[in-house]
Specification:
10 strands, 0% helix, six-stranded mixed β-sheet, Immunoglobulin-like, mainly beta, 43% strand, four-stranded mixed β-sheet, elongated
């Protein structure tokens, strides 16, 4: 599980193209206390190509506050479930890998404290038999 600390986090292990990985992130406020769902005004996910910023699979500003792809528990653990289209490499045929970013936007304190975090991951094409 990743901590909400750094603004940009790089995931250590590559992800297979077309897979549907699940990530967990611990959301902490400025005092390093877990952020529970009632404390958030919103929590959204955008998935984009890291280098170009192009949105991937139409995933732009998707609400992930206990709906759809996201679940935030009372202890501040956000679970994100990606879809195969999020890790597809169809736009770069023949490439061995591509960089993607999961961009999370949220606001606490009635929307007065917005925050953005970025999780970078590498998508790799698997070799055929």
């Amino acid at each position: 599980m990743r901590n909400w600390g750094p603004i940009v986090t790089d995931v250590d292990s590559p992800v297979a193209a077309g897979s549907a990985p699940v990530y967990q992130v611990l959301l902490l406020d400025g005092d390093r206390s877990p952020i529970a769902p009632p404390a958030l005004s919103y929590l959204t996910l955008t998935i984009c190509d890291t280098l170009s910023g192009t949105v991937v699979n139409g995933a732009q500003g998707i609400d992930v506050l206990n709906i759809g792809r996201g679940t935030l528990d009372a202890f501040g653990v956000l679970t994100l479930a990606l879809e195969p289209g999020d890790t597809s490499m169809a736009e770069v045929p023949g490439e061995a890998s591509v960089q993607r970013s999961l961009v999370l936007d949220c606001a606490i304190n009635g929307g007065t404290s917005p925050s953005r975090r970025q999780i970078n991951l590498t998508i790799v094409a698997l070799s055929g038999p």
